[in-house]
């Protein structure tokens, strides 16, 4: 196990942790790097590509260190599951190798930036089997568990991943399957759903319904839940209830833009929003969600947005 898997520090009361921002959009729109299949993991094939990823994560970790707050280091593996790596032309051996290289990069970032009082747990990132914006390949819980076990097993075998994060989950069955696969591998797991502008998953469930589904099916195995790839304004109505399920939500990784997923999918230019305004919206989220302490960005966000979020809440 990794350094923190037995006791995730982000579960401590009064702690605040940053994540990184919109990895793929920074690489494409700021750095001008081509990412086949939107797969940042493909950069790990070359020394130059790995250096680009290292530069990005160093920049993000530096924001947290400057503020003296913790940082959750993601592996660059959102598109490193078997179907997506197959589209990239990877063999089974290459699939395993690229996931291991992503963990090695995360370890190098931690070695460079972690300080006393600034923990940096490593998150093994699992993305959806299909499209992150559209549930175009619906699986049963068992199918999702078996499918995602391949990648999660690699994470567990490294002994360096502290927990698994299922990112951009857009229907409950797949999220449940990931949670069960992580349980079988002996790793803690975090489930991050993405929602549409109406605050609901693409398959129609409310965030409350999705969380309840996973918790009921896994005996509440996830350490906590998150939302990612959605603007803070997209959840305004869902948070008004103040019901107990809101205490299960500890993380939010916001898009810079308030546009819908469909609009973002069709956009040819990056909408990077207003970093200071986004920071203020995170203050509001913290008032609405009593346990919200894992904060960061998703599509369209970069160092500026992370600095604004940290300044607003740290």
* Unreliable runs: none
Assign the CATH class. Answer: Alpha Beta
Helix content estimate: 40-55%
Strand tally is 9
Strand content: 5-15%
Largest sheet: 9 strands, parallel
Order of helices and strands: EHHEEHHEHEHEHEEHHEH
Name of the CATH superfamily: Homocysteine-binding-like domain
Q: What is the CATH third-level topology name?
A: TIM Barrel
Q: Would you identify the CATH architecture?
A: Alpha-Beta Barrel
Mean pLDDT: 93
Radius of gyration: 17 Å
Shape: globular
Strand order of the largest sheet: 2-1-9-8-7-6-5-4-3
Total helix count? 10
Short description:
The chain contains 10 helices and 9 strands.
Considering the chains and any ligands shown, give keywords for the structure.
single chain, 314 residues, alpha/beta, TIM Barrel, nine-stranded parallel sheet, 42% helix
Molecular structure report:
The model has no long low-confidence stretch (mean pLDDT 93). α6 links the parallel β5 (163-169) and β6 (189-193). The protein has 314 residues and is of the alpha/beta class. The protein has helices at 23-30, 47-67, 82-87, 92-113, 141-158, 172-185, 207-218, 261-266, 275-288, 303-313, and strands spanning 17-18, 70-71, 73-74, 122-126, 163-169, 189-193, 224-230, 249-254, 294-297. It is built from ten helices and nine strands. Strands 2-1-9-8-7-6-5-4-3 form a nine-stranded parallel sheet, with helices on one face. α2 runs parallel beside α4 (92-113), α6 runs parallel beside α7 (207-218) and α9 crosses α10 (303-313).
């Amino acid at each position: 196990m990794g350094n923190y898997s037995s006791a995730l520090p982000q579960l401590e009361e009064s702690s605040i942790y940053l994540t990184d921002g919109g990895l793929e959009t920074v690489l494409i729109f700021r750095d001008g790097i081509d990412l086949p299949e939107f797969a940042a993991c493909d950069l790990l094939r070359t020394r130059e590509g790995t250096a680009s990823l290292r530069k990005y994560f160093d920049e993000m970790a530096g924001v947290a260190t400057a503020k003296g707050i913790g940082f959750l280091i993601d592996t660059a593996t959102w598109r490193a599951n078997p179907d997506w790596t197959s589209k990239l032309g990877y063999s089974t051996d290459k699939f395993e190798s690229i996931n291991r290289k992503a963990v090695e990069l995360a370890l190098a970032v931690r070695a460079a930036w972690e300080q006393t009082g600034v923990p940096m747990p490593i998150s093994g990132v699992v993305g959806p089997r299909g499209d992150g914006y559209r549930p175009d390949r619906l699986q049963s819980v068992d199918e999702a568990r078996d499918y995602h076990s391949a990648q999660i097993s690699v994470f567990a075998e490294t002994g360096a991943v502290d927990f698994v994060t299922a990112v951009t989950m857009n229907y409950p069955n797949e999220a449940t399957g990931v949670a069960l696969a992580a349980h079988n591998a002996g790793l803690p797991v975090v489930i991050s759903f993405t929602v549409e502008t109406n605050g609901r998953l693409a398959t129609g469930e409310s965030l409350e319904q999705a969380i309840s589904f996973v918790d009921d099916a896994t005996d509440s195995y996830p350490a906590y839940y998150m939302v990612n790839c959605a603007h803070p304004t997209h959840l305004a109505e869902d948070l008004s209830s103040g019901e107990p399920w809101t205490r299960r939500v500890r993380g939010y990784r916001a898009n810079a833009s308030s546009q819908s997923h469909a609009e973002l999918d069709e956009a040819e230019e990056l909408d990077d929003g207003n970093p200071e305004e986004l920071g203020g919206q995170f203050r509001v989220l913290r008032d609405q969600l009593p346990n919200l302490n894992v904060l960061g960005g998703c599509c369209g966000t970069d160092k500026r947005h992370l600095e604004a979020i940290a300044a607003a809440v740290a």
